[in-house]
Amino acid sequence: MRFSPGGGRVRTRLGVWLVPLAVLLVSAVAAPASAAGPAERPAPRAAAPPDTGAAAPHGRSAVWSASLQGAHGTSPDLTVRNIARASVAASSLRVRVGNPYGDRPAAFRSATVGLQLRVGEADLVPGSLRTLTFDGRRQVTVPPGGHVYSDPVPLRVAAQQNLAVSLYAPGAPVNDHAFPPPTPNPPASFLSLGGDHTHDTGDAAYPEEDRGLSAEPGYHPGRLWWVEVVDGRTAAAGTIVALGDSNTAGHAAVGGGDRWTDLLAQRINALPPGRQLAVANAGISGNTVSRQPSPYDPTGQCCGPPAPDRLERDVLDLAGVRHMILLEGTNDIGGGEFAPPSPASQVIDAMKEIVERAHARGVRVVGATLMPMCNTVGSDKEANRLAVNEFVRTGGLFDGVIDFDAAVRDPAAPTRIRDAYRSDCYHPNAAGHAAMARAVDLSLFGLDGAEGRSGRNAA
């Protein structure tokens, strides 16, 4: 694992991208808005409807989340317009911003939320911009290791509609989330030209050229700064949180595809509103399920803390959480330059701790089997993966099981993901994410409707 001499992105063996610190210390500079967005764009939506707070019998639930993974440099004097997608319809929205890895306070001078008008552009739906306040104030300072929720704002978002959370915090430590290679779908962000553009409803200050993981003005697929959670009043009966690594965060779901969690949310959207559940994604590329050094980064700024150490922040403390899906262990078993491969017992012990703590908070846990990793047949790594999967399926720990291994493995070579579903040895492609979403039995979450029956074991 090395940084490239030219200062660009560097990929580790498991698809984790690391960014040189110098790249993230770039000052904001003017950049032309020359890159076009997608060839086809949806028609502009009408002005945002008034938020009456109606149709929310189940109270407040997290309708979207993204787990921050590390601190990388200092924010230039620019605005970050973060793009998120609501998994279910909601109103009276709150936004959580965080500084979990900063070594100093993060001062947010201005923050807004609105509805994205078109995919790939920073424009907002007319009439949808709302100023975020924090305990009645427009500015807030988040201490190192902390986070803060905004006050609720009167804004309604539809299921599968994109939100834009704009934050201006020059000089703040950049706590971010990223999962390259890029996809055209959220999460994503636009970095503006210099200054505070949180209240801009158009996109003149937000160039659309794809800038990847740099800190240059432009479009940044798969990357977010500071924003962690959006929750709201909703008719849904709570939230499912998916706790995982890159295969949950969405690494390699390319070619116009959504992540399996987004596709699961779309399946659930087919049910009547009162029988739906929101879906929140707590995946971090390179994350481990057990407490150990990161296999890929000795600084601890690559891949987030081990799952047990981020369980409260990323799962249990979210509003309305009722169910958790646990898909972790690949990075433990695979190992890396900075940590050796772990035995199955280490992964299983970590799973037991997570389930025990979740159950103590009234959260049901559905375990997921680990997908093929191109391990050599008969190797210790493959034996450990198979042992973990056998425990997930038959150990009696979990409240239900999703067999992702069976859904995507090649029947002729079961240590590999089948060609049609494989991006690389560790990651499914867009078709693989679709197969994963189809493999989820909705009855595991009490959603045993017609859609759930038809979607069962469809992979």
From TrEMBL:
Stretches of the chain forming a coiled coil according to its record: none
Bias type Low complexity, positions: 35-57
Matching SUPFAM superfamilies: SGNH hydrolase
UniProt-listed InterPro entries: GDSL_Rv0518-like, SGNH_hydro, SGNH_hydro_sf
Keyword Signal: yes
Region (Disordered): 35-60
Keywords: Signal
Signal peptide: 1-35
Annotated SGNH hydrolase-type esterase domain residues: 242-435
PANTHER family named in the record: GDSL-LIKE LIPASE/ACYLHYDROLASE, PUTATIVE (AFU_ORTHOLOGUE AFUA_2G00820)-RELATED, GDSL-LIKE LIPASE_ACYLHYDROLASE, PUTATIVE (AFU_ORTHOLOGUE AFUA_2G00820)-RELATED
Protein name: GDSL-type esterase/lipase family protein
